[in-house]
Design brief:
Blueprint: H1 3-32, H2 39-55, H3 62-72, H4 74-97, H5 101-119, H6 121-127, H7 133-146, H8 148-168, H9 172-203
Length: 204
Amino acid sequence: MTLENLQKINNIFVGMFKVIYLNILWFVFSILGLGVFGIGPATYAMSKYLDQWLRLKREIPITKNFTHYFFERYWQSVIVSLIYAAGLVVVLVNLFNLKNNSLRIVNIVFLFFILIAFTHVFKVMVATNFKKIYELIRGAFLLGFGYLLQTALAWVVISAIYLAISKLVPILLPIYGIGFVGFVLSLDGNWILRNLESKQEVSS
């Protein structure tokens, strides 16, 4: 085995432990923020670190920067998360309470709509110059539905891997948790952004 191969293996293990640690930080900061005021900023902080690491190839301290990112756009990330959470709660309540199958189908469609529209909202926050909330939501909507196949595929990959883990090694579910979801969605968002940049270069 060559030194280059050993380095690649080392990078894989380092990356795995980074995802685990990011997952731990996400849970800790979400709890410290009492859930409602912690989940949005914690997700933003995780997304920002993943963007720095995976897209910009920066090797920076995790804890220090995660803490900084948590407060960087605190209230904006709280509001964004509450907007999507409110829509999700309404749809889920309807699904559990409605008896009419047609209305249930409509709500399932809305659930899919919310999922796709929400997928890249934090990637838009950390990787673009959009500052206003309506710009972030619009940008996430355009990325999600403009690249619907890639966005849906990311969720299929996440679901399939988590299903396999739950059957084979269920203890890994809480260990990787949200960290792995963020990792996959960050890679997916990076691919979409590179594709957009390539199209812009061609058109210019």
